[in-house]
Amino acid sequence: MPIYEYLCLDCGKEFEVVRPMKEADLPIPCQQCQGEHITRKLSVFNACSGGRVVAGASSGCAGCSASSCAGCKH
């Protein structure tokens, strides 16, 4: 099952949920404040094969030490 990223518009908490694709846009309460104003974030991914990037980000993200792409300096 895919991992979906959500943002609570009430408290600003970002959280991830493993759920079926058919449930991706169904309502889900915030894990922190139980708020109901949630939006699904655009998720990015990176896939490598034989040391080459084959999908997703093509710059130095594999060696990035940021905890999220928002904190990345590339």
Give a brief rundown of this model:
The protein has 74 residues and is mostly beta strands. 0% of the residues lie in helices and 31% in strands.
- Distance between termini? 30 Å
What is the molecular shape?
A: elongated
Overall pLDDT score: 80
Structural class: mainly beta
With helices defined by DSSP (H or I, 4 residues minimum), what is the helix count? 0
What are the segments in which pLDDT stays under 50 over at least 5 consecutive residues? Answer: none
Strand content: 25-35%
Radius of gyration: 15 Å
Percentage of residues assigned to helices: under 10%
Question: Can you write the helix and strand succession as a string?
Answer: EEEEE
* Spatial strand arrangement across the major sheet: 2-1-3
Number of strands: 5
Written overview of the protein:
With 74 residues, the protein is an all-beta fold. It has no helices and five strands. The strands form two sheets. The chain has a three-stranded antiparallel sheet with strand order 2-1-3, with no helix packed on it. A two-stranded antiparallel ribbon has the order 4-5. The mean pLDDT is 80.
